[in-house]
Structure formats: structure tokens, C-alpha cells
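Quick one from the shared queue. A colleague (R.T.) flagged 3-oxoacyl-(Acyl-carrier-protein) synthase as missing a structural entry in our internal table.

Convert sequence to C-alpha cells.
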Amino acid sequence: MNSRLVITGMSILSPMGENIDGFWNNLINGVSGIKDITLFDVSKYKSKKAGEISDFDAKEILGKKGIRHIDRTSLLASSAAKLVMGDAKITHETYTEDDLGIVIGSTYGSIDSISSFDLEALKEGPNFVNPMDFPNTVLNAPASRASIFCKATGLNSTISTGVTSGLDAIIYASDFLSLGRVKAVLAGGVHGLTSDIFWGAYRSGILSGSKDDAIEISAPFDKRRNGFIIGEAAALLVIERLEDALKRNAKIYAEIKGYRCTFNPKKIYHDNFDTEEGVRCISLAMKDAELNIDDISYVSACANSSVTGDKMETKVIKDYFGNYAQKVPISAIKSMTGECLDASGAMQCVASIMAINNGVIPPTINYQERDDECDLDYVSNKSRKLDVKNVLINAFSDTGNISSIIISKYS
């Protein structure tokens, strides 16, 4: 990395809370945000739970004007963008519109709108479809809506790489800042809970509780795990070059030390147990950060309670860290939030930054039965005090994308 990049703002809308303090307090106290789904009817399904944001009201954040025809995912993204600018104390007196950019990870954000739009056209005919709903159907809608609300014209990009989207958005934004193209970027991910994604995951058999008499639980690394529980969230960071942040006397939460994304072409959904690319990705990120293995204080795991995925991530950590794998604490916040897909990596970043600033590691809850193939320190069920200096954050997509970021205490 050519420039030192720092994080000067954070926002989150999540099942655990709709502000940073609420999210963090629930996280370190092991309070689950997973509950019965209320957004749509799941009476026909065995799986009935999700990490749902219960009290989200976009009007309280964005105002009433211009939001009537915007879908849930774009409202979450736009709300998070407004909140993160407030947290970073950025106004257009601080930076011009051309100095600001937005990069949002979103793979599934438009699916519900596409489905509803097409269904209406097929049932009633194309002349009866509301043209105001069409902008919701494009993949870049969440990022574009957020840019419009925040008047950010320097950069607008959508990253669509599945579960790694949130981390990849942060990586893309960091590269763009290193080139000196803009002064600040709002970067992260968003995923709104919809019936289409729930149904697709259920039919694929990857949701917890969807098979036979399996218990419906989010229990990463636990022997009882049998699939993930889906969630929704929006999480954004403000990233700036250090010199620009210092010039405006910004509060600096943490520093982005290094990152890398790779791709495993052999990975086809859950069938391939190849850890080589995961190890390579972490190795390249660590090289970028110029850190040694024992410099990592804590690993924020991608683990989401899938049978193969959690086992694979454990092996990746073992293969990269060697003997140190038994010493470094690892936890999976998805045990409390559910799998928030495009937003999950950015949400892990927020949790990791809070761990750095508060000296506490969040737990992996619901850990009761040991799996012999998942035998590391998962900070089970109770948060832990620790001087956290460098955090490795991982994201592994079912379709081969792999991303790692190292976030460090600023000094």
C-alpha cells in the first residue's frame, strides 16, 4: 500500500442494533439478533428464523421526501451512508461532492424488486407496471441511491462477489484512495432480507433447520451446525488517507494495514475442500501489511455455521498460522447476526474496530458440542478482554471468492 489509510467513520444497521453502541453492547454480551421472521410468510418452511432488523424506519434517517418508491435494500444502504457521514463529521464544507465516493457491496440487493416487477408485468401486462419501480431492479441501485442522498459524485461503484462483497468494496475503495482520486470513500456492504433469497437458500438446503429434523441454530464451529441462518444488515466505513484525516482533525478509529482478494477456480459451492487459495490470500494480505504471524491479536472468522465452510476455515487458519493457530483467538459474530451475505464482511470490520478500541473480543455463541475437526480457540460463549492490536478479517464465498483484510490499532 502506497498511502496510510485510516477509518474515520462507522455505521451499522443490523439485527443486533441500529447504531454502533447498541450493536457492540449486544455483541459483547452474547445477545443474539436472530428471531422469527416477520417480513414475509414462512409458514410453509421448516426454517423460520432470520437476523431481521425489527425497528428500521428509513424516514427517521432520510426524511419522508423521495423514499416512497425505494426498496428495502437501497433504503438500508442510503440510511447507513447518511449515518456514517454524520459519524465521520463530514459535510460538503469539509470535502466537495467530487472529493467523496461510495463503494457498496451488493449481490442480491435487486432480486426482490426484479421478481416483483416481472410478476406484475406478467400478471397485469407491461402497461400496468409502475415505471417508478424500475430503478430498483438494477444491481447498482443501493450504491446509486446512497450517492444521491449523500451528494457523493467522486466515485460510485458496486461490488458483486457474494459473501466477500463487503470486504471487496473496502479493498476497492482503499485502492482508489491510494491512487489519490478522491479524499474520502464510504465503503461497505448491504443486504436486505427478502423472500426470494430466503426461498432460494432454503431450496438449496443450506439454511439451518431445512433438512430432516435438524435444529435451527446458528452455531459456528459447533458439532450441531447444519447450515446458516440468513440475516440482513448495512455496514459502512469512511476511509481516508492519513494526511487528509489529520488535516481536518478527524477522529481515527483504526488503520487499514493490508488486504488481498483471490479466487479459487476449483470451488463449486460446498463440494471442494481446497484450502490452498485461502492460505495464499491471508499470506498476501499479511505481506501487504508487513506483519508477522504472531502480530495478529485476533481473527474475525467468516464462519456461518455451515458444515463444510467452518471446517474449511479452521483448516485454512491451521495451515497458515501453524503452531500459532492454537494460540490466536478466533470468533464468529454470525453466531449472533446470522449470515448477512453482502454486508457480513463490512459488519465484521465494524466489530473488529470496536474490539481494537475497547480491548474486548466478541464471543462465538451457541458453542456447546466440540467438533474434532474444529478444535481451535473460538472465544466460546463469553467475550474476552484483550489488548487487540491487529485483526485479521476473513471472507470466503461459496463460489470461490476469498478476501482478507488486516485492520490495526492506529498509532
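The radius of gyration is 20 Å.
The chain has a mean pLDDT of 93.
Added to the table.
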